[in-house]
Amino acid sequence: MLLGCIADDFTGGTDLASALVAQGIRTVQVIGVPDTGEEVVRSGAEAVVIALKTRTAPVADAVEQSLTALRWLREIGCERYYFKYCSTFDSTPAGNIGPVADALMDALGMDFTVICPALPANGRTVRDGRLFVGDVPLDETSMRQHPLTPMDDANVVRLMRRQTASRVGLVGHRTVAQGPERIRAEFGALRSAGIRFAVVDAADDHDLLAIGRACADLPLVTASSGLAIGLTDTPRARPHGLTDGHPHAPVPFGGARAVLAGSCSAATNAQVEAARAVYPTFPVDPCAVVRGEDVVTAALRWARPLLADGPVLLHATQPARNVTAAKSRLPDDTPSRIEDTLASIARGLVDMGVGRLIVAGGETSGAVVGSLGVTGLAIGPEISPGVPWTWTLGTPRPLALALKSGNFGSRDFFLDAWERLP
Ligand SMILES: Nc1ncnc2c1ncn2[C@@H]1O[C@H](COP(=O)(O)OP(=O)(O)OP(=O)(O)O)[C@@H](O)[C@H]1O
Ligand SMILES: O=C(O)[C@@H](O)C(=O)CO
């Protein structure tokens, strides 16, 4: 086992796993910390991604779960570690990126690592320490109105300083452009000056390759999935997932198709709009959920006669500005109650024969995957950057599941994704 990864949400986990597979690294994703490592070791995986649901958990919980994951990864023989967070640095002023990174470093006896959220394949770059989505600074995107992790600053150095007592510095693009040796020298200088976290500028994959090379001696990196391309010496000839002719690969059985959207991100809103024009659609009303109405039974009753004819769409998704406007009128636990509702709907849909399911949103995916009893995911073909099809492990029959990050994918994602299934 080469690489042990800890992802702070489930879509982020498949994003990273897919990036590793694309580098030719045989990768498996597990859901939470498994009881035993036997199955993962037997699978021949060279990287394992533990997907946690810690992005918005209370800080102490997030730290404890991440440390438990680290211990498990060490026990099964991992030698290097990767803490994966969101390419839009989704977090609150209290955390959880800073506290989790600090705790992992303490456990590994480290005094320096990188903070590298750049993901150019999806338009996320870091310039002078500021995170951009396309050309828009993070705090001017719809992330400002995110229901759980509203991002009000684009400056990653400042964001990190809110979350850690440790010193945070910057490796600017002028240094990055000079290649791995120069970057490594800068790491050394920052470290000698007592800097524990270096935010690293990156504008494209070339930069990430150089940063990855410069990180070769760091037992732990912290990053979005972008840095995965820099972690192997030479990318291998072709993608390599456990689904590629591997004896332990599950085979998805087909079955009816459904899309469940719980993300209120801009991309998901556009994708819901596009799919509404084509698929029968059931809007999950947050007010009905909060009033305690039996939305799950209503949704399943609606879906049952439709499933034979093609995909159905069920969504709580609403434009972020509506969510913000309604926030003061709804209880604080509304997001998690919606997650529970969508998770119960997912279980009902699978019981009614759905075998191919797309879920939009990281927290939503965490809830759905939990309710389906999924213990692991084998990584299948990529639908769009950062979103692969996966085959479930641990369910009574393997399902084809796509966990889509809120802001990933083109407008037609929900319409086109099925074509990428073998
Ligand atoms: N109409 C709504 N009003 C309030 N909250 C909602 C509504 N619809 C969904 N939610 C909640 O918003 C949260 C969206 O988070 P989620 O992580 O699923 O999506 P995302 O942040 O867009 O995705 P990602 O984390 O992959 O970027 C969930 O907790 C969900 O239950
Ligand atoms: O990094 C990203 O943007 C995604 O993998 C993600 O974490 C969304 O939840």
Describe this structure in words.
Helix 3 runs parallel beside helix 4. The two termini are 28 Å apart. Helices cover 35% and strands 21% of the residues. The strands form 2 sheets. The chain has a 15-stranded mixed beta sheet with strand order 9-10-5-11-4-1-3-2-16-17-18-15-12-14-13, sandwiched between helices. It has a 3-stranded antiparallel beta sheet with strand order 6-7-8, with no helix packed on it. The chain has 15 helices and 18 strands. It is globular. By secondary structure, the protein is α/β, with parallel strands linked by helices. The chain has 2 domains: 229 residues, Putative sugar-binding, N-terminal domain (Rossmann fold, 3-Layer(aba) Sandwich); 165 residues, Four-carbon acid sugar kinase, nucleotide binding domain (Molybdenum Cofactor Biosythetic Enzyme, Chain A, 3-Layer(aba) Sandwich). The site of adenosine-5'-triphosphate has 26 residues, from helix 13 and helix 14.
Strand count: 18
Overall geometric form: globular
User: Which second-level CATH architecture of the largest domain applies?
Assistant: 3-Layer(aba) Sandwich
> What is the assembly state of the chains in this entry?
single chain
Percent helix, as a range, is: 25-40%
In angstroms, what separates the terminal alpha carbons? Answer: 28 Å
| Uncertain residue segments | none
**CATH superfamily heading of the largest domain:** Putative sugar-binding, N-terminal domain
The helix count comes to: 15
| CATH topology-level name of the largest domain | Rossmann fold
User: What structural class should be given to the helix and strand makeup?
Assistant: alpha/beta
Strand order of the largest sheet: 9-10-5-11-4-1-3-2-16-17-18-15-12-14-13
Structural domain count: 2
> Biggest β-sheet: count, sense, barrel?
15 strands, mixed
Q: Provide the list of bound ligands, each named once.
A: adenosine-5'-triphosphate, ligand LCNOYBR7
